[in-house]
């Protein structure tokens, strides 16, 4: 290899050794970077896979949650029937009187 300036054989050897060392350092840096990127991608994919499994579990339990919600709504309707009807106290009191009168008449109490 002919260079445009004069370099001794000894200096050529040092330049070649330095060039090879620089190429090796660059390859090492590239390999390190690739390893880090690969590890990060694997970590992220593992996290996303775990998150996906959790979401699938929640979706599979959707029917159970809907059944529990319907049962709760039915229980709430049953409990609401025990409340006195009427927005104001006199109306609620009249409803209570009617309920007591009906109960007393069914038990034959005056």
Question: What would you say about this model in short?
Answer:
The protein has 3 helices and no strands.
Outline the structure in words:
The chain is an all-alpha fold and 110 residues long. It contains 3 helices and no strands. It has helices at 9-60, 62-81, 89-106. The longest helix is centred in the N-terminal third of the chain and has 52 residues, at 9-60. It is rod-shaped, with a radius of gyration of 42 Å. The N and C termini lie far apart (127 Å). The model has no long low-confidence stretch (mean pLDDT 88).
Number of E strands: 0
Oligomerization state of this entry?
single chain
* Binned strand content: under 5%
Give the CA-based shape. rod-shaped
The radius of gyration is: 42 Å
Estimate percent helicity. Answer: over 70%
Low-confidence stretches: none
Keywords for this structure?
mainly alpha, 3 helices, rod-shaped
């Amino acid at each position: 290899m002919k260079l445009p300036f004069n370099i001794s054989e000894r200096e050529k050897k040092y330049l070649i050794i330095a060039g090879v060392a620089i190429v090796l350092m660059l390859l090492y840096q590239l390999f390190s970077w690739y390893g880090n990127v690969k590890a990060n991608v694997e970590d992220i994919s593992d996290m996303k896979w775990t998150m996906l499994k959790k979401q699938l579990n929640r979706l599979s339990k959707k029917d159970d949650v809907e059944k529990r919600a319907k049962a709760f709504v039915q229980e709430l309707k049953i409990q609401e029937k025990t409340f006195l009807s009427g927005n104001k106290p006199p109306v609620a009191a009249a409803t209570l009187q009617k309920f007591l009168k009906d109960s007393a008449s069914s038990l034959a109490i005056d």
